Amino acid sequence: MSLYTSTEKTGSFIVDAGISYINGDPLGSESTTGSGSHGTQDLQISISVEGSQLSVQDTVPINSTSVEVEFSLHDIPARFEAYNVTLKATHSGSKHVYTATTSLYNLPQRTDGGSMTKVDSLYGGLLVQSGSTSTSTSWSSLLPYSYYVSWDGWLELSLDNVQKFKDDGYNIIHLVPNDGLANQAFNFTELSFFLDKMDEIGLWLMYDMRWTYKNLTAVREQVELLKDRKSLLLWYTGDEPDGQSDPLNATKITYDLIKSIDAYHPVSLCLNCYNFYFEEYSSGADIILSDVYPIAVNTSWSTVYETPCNTTYGCCGCDDCEGTVEDISVRLDRFAEYQDWLGVSPKTFWGVPMAFGNETFWTRYPTAEEEVTMTMLSLNHNAKGIVMWDWPTTTELANVTGALSRVLASDEAARFILGASTTALQVSGHSKMDVAGWKVGKSMLVSILSLQTPAWSSSVTVQLPAGAKSIKQVLWGAGEWKLVNGHLEKTGGEGLETDLVVVEFE
């Protein structure tokens, strides 16, 4: 976890010892002895935490990933500063010592009514502890599903809009600040009434500092003002800093400042480009959002600037895109690849589906089917939160996302999507289908997307892990899939069809 508190007794480190041809230290030839496989050799690891008495000894197989090594928090005193953690690894027959470092937060339990949010470093989801003066220390999983919400264009117009947004099924609200004000943020006296309402009804806040995040004085003032709020979920700093060509160290400088003031909440930002200094900008956040807008856009000619768009030149509203919904999954997959190439600890990704249109590069709004597809395609490719741009939107989109919120913002969806690794599932009989599953215990949530616009008539089979015995529940879609010989089968379907089914296993 990104943080622990003084009321917790144990934690775990995650050790990745995968073979890489891109980064790391050379693996000696002696490690290939035995049966001739890297996996036959174990690494002996030692983990120490600076400033504490903790020392952990264990073994992990070479070429293994996501190995959890449990440790006791008893010997790590709670404090606001992060602890430096060092891992040293060796294997028999070699004198080489491999090293890795990370940081660990063991924070004092809050008693001031403020909230706490931790990031699950294994699966990428959020766990929250609502601000309270009670003695409850339980954590709940939260799958964010919401919109970027215009403050001065909608929410500010009525305090009742806070309740309406909650009633529509969304579990967080991302407030877009007012750059027309002198402070490029909010009238904080007025905002406090809205935040009081959010505290009251349990609507989480994603606080946006897009216009001010490079002004460290303004950042400090805002964080100090809001860090103890019961409804605060996380901070948001750079909005497309790569597209704006912000200073490369800007996001990291602000990240370090925020963490020095408030270690109880993660920091997020949104990257717009296919790859423009990904390493530098992403270093300034715990959560990276990706805003790919591929609907009704010309990806080869800029209708705004009247210039061509190619791999090195031009702006068409969707960087290095093909103009299909698959642009979303390609971008998320590439971001994951970048992290692997860099050899850094993986950060959590969220998706930003397009919910606007009839402006600049985009000639229309997405359809309801496109909106659902963009959302689920993000989740299928390991996004752990959805924040659409932007609200208010069309009645058609508001209706379909309100309906989908009843599924995605539920505890049932969070249990699967945040409680297991995302597994891509193979499909036969349909060339443009994207399927993923999340297996928890003896159940698996399966997300099935047809990415072609026309209806299809072929017979399709979705391969499932061994032991599937029945379809327990249909969370979204027509419910026409059948379990045949341990796999999901269906003949024919609609274009851009989305189905969410829960399968039971033996």
Shape annotation: globular
- Cα-atom radius of gyration: 24 Å
Tell me the number of structural domains. 3
Segments where pLDDT lies below 50 for 5+ residues? 31-36
Number of helices: 9
User: Which percent range describes the beta-strand content?
Assistant: 25-35%
In CATH terms, the superfamily of the largest domain is: Glycosidases
Number of strands: 30
Q: Give the termini separation.
A: 31 Å
Strand order of the largest sheet: 12-13-14-15-16-17-20-21
CATH architectural grouping of the largest domain? Alpha-Beta Barrel
In short:
It is built from nine helices and 30 strands. The chain has 506 residues and is an alpha/beta fold. It has three domains: 104 residues, Immunoglobulin-like, CATH 2.60.40; 275 residues, Alpha-Beta Barrel (TIM Barrel), CATH 3.20.20.80; 83 residues, Immunoglobulin-like (Sandwich), CATH 2.60.40.
Please provide a written account of the structure.
The protein is α/β, with parallel strands linked by helices and 506 residues long. Helices cover 20% and strands 32% of the residues. The chain contains nine helices and 30 strands. The strands form eight sheets. An eight-stranded parallel β-barrel has the order 12-13-14-15-16-17-20-21, surrounded by four helices. A five-stranded antiparallel sheet has the order 22-24-25-30-27, covered by helices on one side. Strands 4-3-6-7 form a four-stranded antiparallel sheet, with no helix packed on it. Strand 20 (348-351), helix 7 (368-380) and strand 21 form a beta-alpha-beta unit. The protein is globular and about 60 Å long.
